[in-house]
Amino acid sequence: MNKKLLTLVAGVLVLCSLLAFSGCGKKQVIDEEVETDVEETIESVEEEEEVAEKPAEKPVEKPAEKPAEKPVEKPVEKPAEKPAEKPADEPKTVGQTLLADFYEKASSGDVLTVAKAIVTNAIIPFSGDAITVEPGFLSGFDNYEVHGFKNGAMFGPVMGTIPFVGYVFELEDGVSANAFVDGLKANANLRWNICTQADEMVTGISGNKVFFLMCCEQFETEE
Questions:
Q1: pTM exceeds 0.70, yes or no
Q2: Closest to 97 in 3D by CA, of 218, 189, 188
């Protein structure tokens, strides 16, 4: 209890003492009024003290919500597309090159003319020539007799042991070109040349003409 309250209570007590000497009829009324005033005063002072002692509550400020920042999306760099490389054309073999030559020249003349033209192709490094042949035993077929053609020409190197022998046949009427070719392939010997051996066997059909060749895939070139 503070000094202000003590001073007030003391004043009230003094007032009560003075009034004690008054008449008895009035004493009871005054006592009741004084007690009531004292109680109210004490309650009022105590309430003021409680208010004074209790610090004012500062409202808690709720921090303003910061809007969530949207992450900046870094653009994904698309790698530059590398142009598709065109595969290099595989070099044709000797046989494939001469077969293509046959298809171009097959209708240009008789079998001997076509054979002579083929053997002069730039892919052939040797000196070559062509001669006519008759049905029967032919070079490269061992004991197999070749029949079913009315005109035939063989082309190859003039001399040497190069594994190279080719033919152009003009078939007889009614002979199946496919059956004729199957007979050649089934009986040909890639090692007909005792010293060397051919790498590939190539055949082709153009009209009633048949192309047949045994040779190496590539000719060795001198550096």
A1: no
A2: 218
Mean pLDDT, all residues of the chain: 78
**Count of beta carbons in the 10 Å neighbourhood of residue 198:** 24
Distance CA 17, CA 146 (A): 166
Whether residue 34 contacts residue 42, with contact meaning beta carbons closer than 8 Å, is answered with no
| Domain ranges, ordered by start, for the chain | 3-53, 94-215
| DSSP SS3 for 155 | strand
Residue 106: per-residue pLDDT? 96
The one-letter amino acid at 100: A
Starting at the edge strand found earlier in the chain, the sheet holding 128-133 runs 128-133, 149-157, 165-171, 209-215, 200-206
Taking a C-beta distance cutoff of 8 angstroms, is the pair 174, 204 a contact? no
